[in-house]
């Protein structure tokens, strides 16, 4: 009975998402890029001349949210948010509420709600309204992993069998029908990156509404087969993250939920987030809702609340997930999730995890077949969008949908929460917020860039360098303040001072970038393999300048002629 009910609610979730999404399809599909199968449109003329590699490097200066490009982006997302809420009202007859926030660096650019927190309520959701966040919980489970590694409690490649075995029951021994049949590849690493080859769902369902204890849960897990050899395929798994959470619980000696709240959420300033639905928490939540829009699925309507199509409270609203909490049991608010985004941008004071661990936490991980999306170590879904790698994660429960997105290179973050079992709506809100705000922010940043400084001695270094009469390198003034130009092996380059590279006493360093006529057509594959964004270092010997370019295996090329 419980499994059948869960399947019915899953159908309800899909249907509600599709109905609301198509109800507001018109504004979502405007200006979407088309796809062509014509060979002439294939972007790879050769492996060197392919999709152009993004080369723009911007200083992330402070901006004002009142600047016109950003105001326009805010207006667009406000209009989209309103149209989605009104579209659900028109198509489903439901009073729903949503909260959307956008932040650049430490500055909130947009933070608004629309609709209502409950049917018949006039209260509009705010940044402090609490929603369940479903699978966004996973990024906090992986953050717990990063902290446990930093604290030397676990190693990334520790297998599950280290934590669940005959000496520490229940033991973990599902069947691996591949290779040497070992379970060594089912590790904390493979679980976090969805490559542990476990099925998608825990045997109890995420809510464990059949009331199994951990021994019984493992009886079901151990009756399973691994779906693939570990690490060979990405396969999204709620079970995998739930299991990772309980492994970490054993490693740190503290209940998973308590560790996340006490060691992660509260230090991050996330005081409206957690796992326990106290009366205070419930009083500040938007009421989670679902809708019956799969009439052909149900043979009768007697066991399905609201099967007449009316709005109803989700049957799993404010129900704790128990053993599976690590895959989706958290609640939070838009403002709290912005606190988490601040941590991703700044690393805090380094007390939670170190800067190297944070960078690894955000890295793209296992590539998916489209070649432009990955599952990362932080259990993010990373995509290439709007010209930048974008870190995303969505969440869905029986009564709520959620989405976060973060552009690390621009320190630009997005949050969307709704009290409906729809993952599509919040995903579209953050995707379109990125589509609006990325170009708007770029427009503001480009006109506000500071002039790069030049070292006091730069004019003494301008000229031609080589061996004998052969010139291999040259650097000269350019028409752009703070930027020099020249060539390496006759290939045009630009040069910008990089004092961080001046580790040898008396040296002067510049970073160079390809500037030939094909620079805007060269693939990242070519640029990264042939040397760009590398360094030239000048030194003086007996008053004569010399230049070394380690990327080109050039050392101490003598100045042959000085620019007068």
What report would you give on this structure?
The chain is α+β, with helices and mostly antiparallel strands. Helix content is 29%, strand content 21%. The strands form 4 sheets. An 8-stranded antiparallel sheet has the order 2-1-12-11-10-9-8-7, with helices on both faces. It is globular and about 85 Å long. The termini are far apart.
Summarize the structure.
By secondary structure, this protein is α+β, with helices and mostly antiparallel strands. Helix content is 29%, strand content 21%.
State the low-pLDDT regions, or none.
1-19, 21-39, 293-310
Apparent shape: globular
Strand-residue proportion: 15-25%
Mean of pLDDT: 87
Number of helices: 14
- Measured distance between first and last alpha carbons: 88 Å
List its traits.
alpha+beta, 8-stranded antiparallel sheet, disordered N terminus, 564 residues
What is the topology?
Elements: H1 2-23, H2 25-29, H3 68-92, E1 97-104, E2 107-115, E3 130-134, H4 137-150, H5 188-192, H6 214-222, H7 238-252, H8 256-265, H9 279-283, E4 289-290, E5 312-313, H10 325-328, E6 330-333, H11 334-346, H12 355-362, E7 366-367, E8 373-375, E9 381-385, E10 388-396, E11 401-407, E12 412-418, H13 424-446, E13 463-467, E14 470-476, E15 484-488, E16 491-497, E17 508-514, H14 524-530, E18 534-541, E19 544-549, E20 554-562
Antiparallel strand pairs: 1-2, 1-12, 3-6, 4-5, 7-8, 8-9, 9-10, 10-11, 11-12, 13-14, 13-20, 14-15, 15-16, 16-17, 17-18, 18-19, 19-20
Helix pairs in contact: 1-3, 3-13, 4-7
């Amino acid at each position: 009975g419980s499994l059948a009910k869960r399947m019915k609610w899953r159908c309800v979730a899909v249907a509600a998402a599709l109905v609301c999404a198509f109800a507001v399809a018109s504004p979502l599909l405007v200006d979407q890029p088309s796809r062509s199968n014509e060979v002439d449109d294939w972007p790879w003329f050769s492996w060197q001349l392919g999709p152009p590699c993004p080369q723009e490097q911007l200083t992330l200066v402070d901006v004002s949210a009142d600047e016109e490009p950003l105001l326009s982006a805010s207006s667009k997302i406000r209009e989209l948010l309103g149209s989605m809420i009104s579209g659900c009202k028109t198509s489903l007859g439901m009073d729903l509420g949503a909260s959307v926030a956008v932040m650049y660096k430490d500055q909130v650019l947009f933070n608004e709600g629309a609709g209502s927190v409950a049917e018949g309520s006039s209260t509009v959701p705010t940044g402090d309204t609490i929603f369940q966040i479903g699978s966004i919980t996973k990024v906090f489970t992986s953050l717990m992993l990063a902290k446990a590694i930093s604290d030397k409690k676990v190693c990334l490649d520790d297998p599950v069998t280290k934590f669940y075995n005959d000496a520490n029951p229940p033991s973990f021994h599902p069947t691996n029908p591949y290779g040497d049949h070992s379970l060594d590849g089912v590790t904390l690493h493979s679980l976090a990156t969805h490559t542990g080859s476990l099925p998608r769902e825990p045997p109890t369902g995420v809510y464990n509404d059949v009331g199994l204890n951990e021994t019984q849960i493992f009886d079901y897990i151990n009756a399973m087969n691994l779906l693939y050899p570990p690490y060979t395929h990405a396969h999204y798994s709620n079970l995998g993250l739930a299991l990772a959470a309980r492994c970490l619980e054993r490693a740190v000696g503290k209940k998973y939920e308590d560790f996340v709240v006490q060691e992660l959420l509260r230090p991050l300033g996330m005081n409206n987030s957690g796992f326990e639905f106290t009366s205070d928490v419930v009083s500040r939540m938007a009421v989670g809702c679902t809708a019956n829009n799969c009439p052909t699925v149900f043979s009768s309507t007697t066991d399905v609340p609201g099967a007449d199509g009316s709005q109803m409270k989700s049957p799993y609203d404010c129900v704790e997930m128990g053993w599976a909490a690590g895959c989706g049991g958290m609640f939070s608010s838009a403002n709290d999730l912005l606190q988490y985004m601040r941590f991703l941008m700044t690393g805090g004071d380094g007390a939670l995890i170190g800067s190297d661990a944070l960078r690894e936490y955000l890295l793209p991980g296992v590539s998916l077949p489209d070649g432009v999306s990955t599952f990362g170590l932080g259990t993010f879904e990373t995509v290439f969008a709007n010209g930048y790698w974008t870190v995303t994660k969505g969440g869905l429960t029986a009564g709520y949908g959620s989405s976060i997105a973060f552009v690390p290179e621009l320190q630009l973050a997005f949050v969307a929460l709704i009290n409906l079992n729809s993952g599509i709506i919040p995903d579209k809100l953050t995707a379109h917020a990125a589509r609006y705000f990325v170009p708007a922010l770029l427009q503001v940043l480009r006109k506000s860039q500071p002039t790069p400084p030049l070292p006091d001695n730069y004019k003494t270094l301008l000229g031609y360098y080589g061996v004998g009469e052969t010139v291999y390198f040259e650097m000269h003034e350019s028409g752009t303040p703070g930027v020099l130009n020249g060539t390496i092996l006759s290939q045009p380059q630009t040069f910008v001072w990089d004092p961080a590279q001046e580790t040898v006493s008396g040296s002067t360093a510049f970073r160079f970038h390809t500037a030939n006529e094909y620079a805007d057509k060269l693939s990242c594959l070519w640029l990264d393999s042939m040397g760009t964004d590398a360094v030239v270092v000048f030194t003086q010997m007996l008053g004569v300048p010399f230049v070394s370019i380690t990327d080109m295996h050039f050392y101490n090329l003598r100045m042959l002629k000085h620019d007068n």
